[in-house]
Structures are given as C-alpha cells and as structure tokens.
Batch of 3 targets.
Target 1
Amino acid sequence: MRINEDLTKPVIVHSAKLDWVPSPSAGVDRCMLYRVGGEVARATTIVRYAPGSMFPRHVHNGGEEILVLEGTFQDEHGDYPAGCYFRNPPGTSHVPASKDGCTIFVRLWQYREGDNTQIVRQPGEGETARSRDGAEAERVLFDDGKERVSIEHWRRGSTITVENRRGLEFLVLSGGLTARAEQLNPQSWGRLPAGEPLEAIAGPEGAEIWIKDAPLQHPDVLQMRA
C-alpha cells in the first residue's frame, strides 16, 4: 500500500473527511495519512480506539511516536490522557488499549539508526521556548539536534511563517488556520519538503499546532522488517 509516499511534494490531508479503515483488532480503526507497506509499514496514522478495545502485545521494531488527541490511551505502563506525547524506541513493546475510547496520532518506522531515547511528556510538560512572531507560547517536546518536536499556540488572526530547512510535518490540534489556500481544522495534517516554509494565518479562535522539524525521511532511517 502506498499513500502520499512522494516526499518531494507538499501534502495536506483533512483527516475528518476520510473514511476510517478497520485494523486487525476489533474496535481499532485507522485514518491513513502516509503509508508505505502493508500491515508492517512506514506510516503516519490517526488511530481511533473504541471503548474497551485493545491491540495484542507487539514489538515496535521500527519505533513508535504517539500524541494522544482525545480521550485516554493506556498500556500496561500507565494511562496517557489527551495531550500526552511519547516515543517508544525500536525494540520496545506494549499492549495498547483504551477503557473509555481515545484517538491518537501515530508515526511508525520513521526512527533513524541509533535513536534509542524513550520519553513520556504528560499534558503541559516540555521545555518552554521563545515564541515566534504571531505565537503566544511554544513547548518543545523533543529535540536531539536531528529533529525537533513542539506544540505551538498561535494568536487569533496572526500571520505565521515557519522556516523549513530540513522538512516540516504538522498537525492542527485545535482552532484552525489557513495555509496553502486551504482551511485547516483540528486533525488536518500536512507535510512540506525542505525549502518550502509553512506560511499560515491563524483563525478567529487561534490555533494549537504540533510541529516536527526534521528530514521527512532520515538518511539512516531504519529498514523495515516484520
């Protein structure tokens, strides 16, 4: 399966307009944003857990990066309410589930060789950073020099420019914005190749946005295997 696999082209996906695709586990559905591969895939996905659903134990050979969007995600290590961000490096395993239902944003098989950092950021955690023009707050969730992941709050009606030297990926969490002549709402996702800045105007409610500043595929990205 190949979905938005050409990393040289800008892409914006309005996930709220897409159909949910059932996963192999009952009650767990997926909205596929980017995918190269079958059930084992290099992928960026929004995943919805119905109340009481779970996935059987599995190992993340290619690493896993998650942002909880709605509800509370769970595994045997604890509960992760909306706003939690965590990174499970290659070789980690768990039994994901949700007692009351949740929606999460997931990136799989996009780790590079040697990235073994495991972190959990609870809602509101992260290093406070100097905000760019038009933004009122920024929290850095992860920055190791190779990639930088943050959440920004943009003022309503503000014009924002996010420079792009390595590649950008972003997800609207709340509010809305206009970019590339399109209206982006919560769970709208975009990806821009290096050299194409994100130029946006925040909507009347402002915008909260998750941003990853990193190569769209690391030169030493892990090779997929089952």
Note: The chain is about 0% helix and 55% strand.
Target 2
Amino acid sequence: MKDVLQQLAEKISQMPYIADEAKRDTHLHLVAKYAVDAIGALISPAAGDVRANVFGLTQTRDGLVCVESSRKKKPSPFLAGEAETREALEFLSSGERIVLYHDLSKSRPASWGRQNQTGYKSFMSVPIAAPDPDSHDGELKVYGMVSIDAAAVDVFSTNDEHVAELVADLVATAFAIDDATAHNA
C-alpha cells in the first residue's frame, strides 16, 4: 500500500512546480493514471475485475469527462442536461462522501431506469473535493469524482470504500493545485 500511494503522492508533489498550463494538464492526467492504478492495486481481490475512473468537472461545471480510466476505452462523458449528469452533479454537491450500489440488479441510480447501462454489477463513486480557499466556512470545492465498477455483486468492503476515499482525496489535492496555479497565472 505504501509503495503504491507513495508513487501517487510523488506525482502530486510535482504539480506546484509546473507553470506551463499544457504541461500541468498532461501531468494531471498522469496523476489520474496513477490514481486508477492505485485503486486497481489496493481494492480487495474479492472485487474481481474492477474498472476505476477519474472524472473531472467540465469548465462550465455542468458535466463530467473521464480524465483517466483503468480500461482502454474510457466511459462516455456526462453531458450537460442529461438525467444521469444531473443525478451525478446532485450527488457531488450533496456533501455525501460516497454513493455505493452493492447490487445494481436490486438498486441503481434513478436516472438509469430499468437498465443497467454499464454492464457492471456494483459500483461506488466518491467526490474529488478539497477545501475551497475562497470559503471562510471550510466549504469544499468539488473537482470531479472517482468511480469504481465491479463485475460481481456485493464485493466492496469497508476497506475498499476507504481506499476509494483516500485516493479521491489525494487526487483532489492535484486538482486544487492545478486550479490555484491556473488562477495565479
């Protein structure tokens, strides 16, 4: 665990020293790659075949795009105005730390209707959020979310939830550094 998270932390620690916006964006994608790799390495083997994704909010903050995925084919973006996007954004603004569906055949996001759109059997999402430097109330600024899909039902342990939250918190640091650097440029 230490080795996997140390590699991610080292990539994040380089962020403040990258002034060029294009290079910083490329490096943020690298951080996201290390994050999905960390999730793959740290999620319980009982979860089986998992897909980990890092989604970032669009510039207009009305959609989400996949920054990095553990699969070659990235998931489709969450487009502005779509029901699934509204539901994801509501979750991200709710202040909840995690949304978890152990068995998508029994319970799934309302926007999915009767269909399981992913083909996966369980999933969880965790906000990528960091303290907002412009807030005096300790509010969090949301940058996106980490999602993890599993091919089997009821496989995520409490430890897996903690791994997802920890990785999301680390990635939030990178997004916050990128945001602060972009505003100070």
Note: Residues 56 and 99 are 17 Å apart (CA to CA).
Target 3
Amino acid sequence: MIAPATVDPLLPLSLLEAVRSVDSPRDDQDAEYVPELRNKRLGLSETVYAQIRRYTAAVRKSQRAPQEEAVALARLIGRRADAQEVFMSAGRILARQSFETTSPVTRRVIFVLPSLLARPLALREARRIAQRYLNGNIRRVGGSLMLEVPVSVTVDSAPKERGCAYYESVLRELVRLLVGGAGAVEHVRCVARGEGVCEWRAEWRRT
C-alpha cells in the first residue's frame, strides 16, 4: 500500500497565516467593524484560526500534514482576486520561519565569513530547507541557485500561474536571508506549461 503524500505542516500554516495577515484590519476604522469583517474575510474566520492552531501544534510536534489539505487550501486562495499577493506573502512567511530553524551559530558564521567560505554553508541550509519544507531540491548552477519542485502544491490553484508566485517568493526571501541577495527570480519551467517539473532560478550572490 502506497502511503499518502505529505508536506511539512509549515507549508499550509504559511498559507493560512498569509490569508490572516492580508485580511486583517488595516486601520482603526476597519477595526471598529471586526465582527462584520469576520463574516466577509476568510482570514478572520474562526475556521482559519482553528486550522492555524492545528498546524502550529503539528509544527511543534514535527507531524507531517496530508498534501491534499495543502492543495485544497491553495485552490481556495486561488479563487481570490488578490491570490498572487497572498501567495507571495505566504512564501516570505515560510522562508523566514524555516530560516529560523537554522542554528544561530550557523547563521552567524554565514554572515561573518567571506563570501567564498560562507556560500557553501548557505547552500547546505538552502538545500535542507527546500527538501524539508517544499519537498523540493536546490542546486547551484554557476552564479545561480535552482529550485526544483517535482510536485507543486500551488501549480493548479490559480489562473496564469499565479500560484507559482508562492515558490518564487520562498526562493527570493531565502536568498535574501542566506546571502543578502536581492536579485531577480525567474520561473524557468512549469508543469502547467507541460514542462514536466516546476523550477525557479535566482541570482546567488551577495549584494
């Protein structure tokens, strides 16, 4: 019997936290109508809060989550007019929270060593994060970092590949956190385009 596919719970948690953040009141005037807003905004619903608590507990206990749950959540987000904004916010959340699992000593060493010595350590951490949190692989090709995700959770979630902004955002934020880079990220291959796998390329250098 084949075991069902799973993901790290931080992945669906990042999607839910992004929805909550985007849907939260932006000013005092909105805050006055929070009970009314709860009925209109998914991110303020009790259902989302309950799911956030559930996935937070799963993260704490290192329990995997069914991949189909993450896919269903991504498709729900994909129906929103601001889907791309939510996916990009979620990607930054996952990158930052996964980066925090890198030991403080390793982070400090990466930042204080010269680039030639620091980048192999940073690449090792990038690979660990991609494997654990994205079910993906990262490799270095010349001056670029390539993120390959064989089974994307968000690929079919929204039209015009908007869901792919999630992984693009993860990679961009990881490069910024690991080496201080802020270069462009290119979506070079996509399952939605019939190219067999989803892949992104980012500049791998310090600014």
Note: The chain has a mean pLDDT of 88.
